[in-house]
Design a protein that fits this description.
Number of domains: 2
CATH superfamily of the largest domain: Bordetella uptake gene, domain 1
CATH class of the largest domain: Alpha Beta
Largest sheet: 10 strands, mixed
CATH architecture of the largest domain: 3-Layer(aba) Sandwich
CATH topology of the largest domain: D-Maltodextrin-Binding Protein, domain 2
Helix content: 40-55%
Shape: globular
Radius of gyration: 24 Å
Distance between the termini: 73 Å
Strand content: 15-25%
């Protein structure tokens, strides 16, 4: 080979080296670095605990650290907006809660598509709500509550976690099913609403099982009904709303995982497999079940379908009750 040709080949190889290095780097197996897992709720709450439990176990199988970050704001939608706009590379993920479809129904100016603006991966847990009144209240059953609401239209108050919250929307769904009208008293979260009930400021609340169970154990609160279609494990002595006068009534909350739209299917599949593995670990499953949850995964298609159905339901309720937020 002539010297000039040799030099030319060396120069071409040197020029091509950075591109080859980048191509090789981009072809690294997923995941090759730290993963960020966002959610939109305060640290220490139910969603935060679920996120940390599952993320810690997933990181073992993925071989990479998963950092959980609470990005609080706009009823959880700020975190969803951030993930929706993130690079679809599997390094920014979202823990989604059952509030997500309600937010989609009542907020007018979301900066992301609440259904197609995320790539759905899997649910991890499902749980019902518990309708509670004080033990010293005149209402002892769900039927008593509805009868009282009919006697006093707008005079029976519901403490909710805020306008457009799941507890607010569920209250409106009950009201429409029973053809009654409740007075919505919005608080800044579920815990303050429960304090309003304990203080006698409202007549009932619709609470997550974790918060309700503690107050029921204290003897200050009576459970009137659960929102699941069938009686719930751990609360089998509490009748359902469906068996108490509103047939087919069901409202379930949940937690699950999502990614930015257009995330490659291979990455979605890998994450789905790790979620399934993580929630099957006895310590993780037992801890999740201690919150009153049913622990199970879904396919991405099943998760998307559930979110779509709940968005449609809550949009109908929001339109009928004229619940709209900016």
């Amino acid at each position: 080979m002539r010297r000039r040709e040799f030099v030319g080949l060396c120069g071409a190889a040197a020029a091509a080296w950075p591109f080859a290095a980048r191509a090789q780097g981009s072809a690294q197996p997923y995941p090759a670095r730290l993963i960020k897992l966002l959610h939109g709720f305060p640290p220490g709450g139910n969603v935060d605990v679920v996120a940390r439990l599952v993320a810690q176990e997933m990181s073992k199988g993925l071989g990479q650290t998963i950092i959980v970050e609470a990005k609080v704001g706009q009823a959880g939608s700020l975190a969803a907006e951030t993930v929706s706009a993130a690079e679809p590379d599997g390094y920014t993920l979202l823990v989604v809660a059952g509030l997500h479809p309600a937010v989609a129904a009542v907020y007018r100016k979301l900066k992301y598509d609440p259904l197609d603006g995320l790539a759905w991966i899997s649910m991890v847990s499902f749980y019902p709500f518990i309708l509670c009144a004080r033990t010293d209240a005149p209402v002892k059953t769900f039927a008593d509550l509805i009868a009282r609401a009919r006697q006093k239209p707008g005079g029976v108050s519901s403490g909710t976690a805020g306008n457009g919250s799941i507890s607010h929307m569920t209250t409106e769904l009950i009201a429409r099913g029973a053809d009654v009208r409740f007075l919505n008293v919005p608080y800044r979260g579920e815990a303050p609403a429960m304090q309003g009930l304990l203080g006698g400021d409202v007549d009932f609340v619709i609470s997550t099982s974790t918060l309700a169970a503690a107050q029921m154990a204290s003897g200050q609160v009576r459970a009137l009904a659960v929102t699941s279609k069938a009686r719930w494990n751990g609360f089998s002595d509490i009748p359902t709303i469906a068996e108490s006068g509103l047939p087919d009534f069901e409202v379930m909350s949940w937690s699950g995982f999502a990614a930015p739209p257009r995330t490659p299917q291979a990455i979605i599949n890998r994450l789905h497999a790790e979620i399934e593995r993580a929630i099957a670990v006895p310590d993780v499953r037992t801890r999740l079940e201690s919150f009153g949850a049913e622990v199970r995964s879904t396919t991405p298609a099943e998760m998307r379908d559930l979110v779509a159905r709940q968005i449609a339901l809550w949009t109908k309720i929001a339109d009928e009750a004229n619940i709209r937020l900016d």
